Amino acid sequence: MTSDGQSVERLRDYLRTLKPEARAMLVTELERGVLRGDEAAGNEFVLQELRRTIRAAGQAVPRIGDAARLFFAPLEPFLIDDGADHKRVGRLARVSLEPIWEWIGRDLMPAEAKALSDDINRALVADDGVKAELLTRALHERAIQRIKETIDAAGADEKMRRRLVVQVGTPRAFEDVDSLLRILVLRDVLGDLARRRLPKHLRTFEREQIDQVKALVEAAAAQKSPDLAARKTDIFVCGLVLVMGRLALPWQLIRLATRAAESDDAARVAETPFANAVAIVLSEIECMVSELRVELKARRPVTSLLKGIHDAARGLRTEMDLSVDSPWSRQLAAIRTDISALLKAEIESTPGRVRRLLRPRPPNEIAPGALLDAIDVSDTEMLVEFVDACRSYANELAVNEVTARTWLELQHYLETADKGLLDALRQAGAADRPFRQSQAEAAIRFCRTVFGADYAGLLAKAAEIAVQTGTVERKSVRA
């Protein structure tokens, strides 16, 4: 390790020895220095290491922040870490905040945004939280007014709408700005609902808690205010998103809708303001499917995603009667069709990947000392585990038939291939033995998933005996 590397390790060791209170104080002082414009060497690096240590310890530390962070604070419960092009009801992509902030300061209200931002930063440096909050409210009010004017103008002028899209620069620019406006207008109502009224955790969302939460959301929507009256639907949507963030199982949000309708009939549910809960859950499922597509392409584990999609789809069909034709039943059917098509190709490719790795090869096709590619083996093992996971969730994912067929094919191939692999290992010479062993090791890994640990253990022992037997036989021949 270089001397620089040793210094970094010593710093990390030191930061780990600090008490949580000391870490928090150090972060606060360093961030305040950054806001003042201090350029002490290593400040940013120490901050980065501090935050990493704090995250590893599971410690929550309030950050001083800057004007942008305070400006966007009301949006925190509604932010998602997905791509900016993903559409989710009542949500805004975190990656969209920076371009929106730049748009506000560059195009929407440059002079006002700069003046107020500078004042906010000065208040933060002075540790005057009250003044910083008042200035942030003033910035919110100015931004709300200007955004309203811009959206109204863009709605009536296609050229101006295109200009807005270019200026903001996010894939869903108009929708992002509109979402920002809706949340900022309701920031006090939503803040009160989130901080003072809703339970922090809703572990078992049953009748008593459902009624309590339903009453709280209805009370928020019933507040008497000219601005809020026109945004009653927004209060329901944002309020439901807040509720979902506190549920152990997000799909349970559906229970608010069926409770409000006093029925699981889709038509009756659609007549209540809580019908937004169904739209939100369906949106969440669609987003999980998009994430599944990305993760499959990147060859990353997807078992938790499959479970999330399965649970949400099953919960939706269990809590509501979607047996008759309705927009929601058609949307869910389309989602399940999309999932099935996405998974089917991956499932059907798995036996071929296994056969390619384990197929018998004559010695003249094996380079001396060659091995199976370790990454290829790991990827194939992940695919076998993926098929196994699909078996558990096959019904809701609409892959029953293809999963059952593929699993039987894997079982049959591995059962017949194992004997050939052991025979080849027994007869292997010094040149091809490493490759035969790597094939046997791959088969053991696949069998652990398909047949269980006991079968894999027996196969491993058989492979060990095959190597020993082959060595003894070759020594006897030479003798």
What does this structure look like?
The protein is mostly helical. The protein is 74% helix and 1% strand. The chain has 4 domains: 3-56, no CATH class; 67-185, no CATH class; 194-324, no CATH class; 359-478, no CATH class. It has 23 helices and 2 strands. The longest helix has 32 residues, at 327-358.
Summarize this structure as a short list of keywords or feature phrases:
single chain; about 475 residues; mainly alpha; 4 domains; two-stranded parallel ribbon
How large is the share of residues in beta strands? under 5%
Number of domains: 4
The sequence of SSEs as H and E is HHHHEEHHHHHHHHHHHHHHHHHHH
Number of strands: 2
Based on CA atoms alone, the radius of gyration comes out at: 30 Å
Largest β-sheet summary: 2 strands, parallel
- Number of separate helices: 23
Relative helix content = over 70%
Outline type: globular
Low-confidence runs of at least 5 consecutive residues:
none
Could you tell me how far the N terminus lies from the C terminus, measured between alpha carbons in angstroms?
51 Å
- Report mean pLDDT, rounded to a whole number: 87
Alpha-beta content class: mainly alpha
Strand order of the largest sheet: 1-2
Blueprint of the fold:
Blueprint: H1 3-17, H2 20-36, H3 43-56, H4 67-72, E1 79-80, E2 92-93, H5 97-108, H6 110-125, H7 129-156, H8 158-168, H9 173-185, H10 187-197, H11 207-221, H12 226-229, H13 232-244, H14 254-261, H15 266-270, H16 276-297, H17 303-319, H18 327-358, H19 374-392, H20 394-397, H21 400-427, H22 433-450, H23 453-478
Parallel strand pairs: 1-2
Helix pairs in contact: 1-3, 2-3, 2-6, 5-6, 6-7, 7-8, 7-9, 10-13, 11-13, 11-14, 16-17, 16-18, 18-19, 18-21, 19-21, 19-22, 21-22, 21-23, 22-23
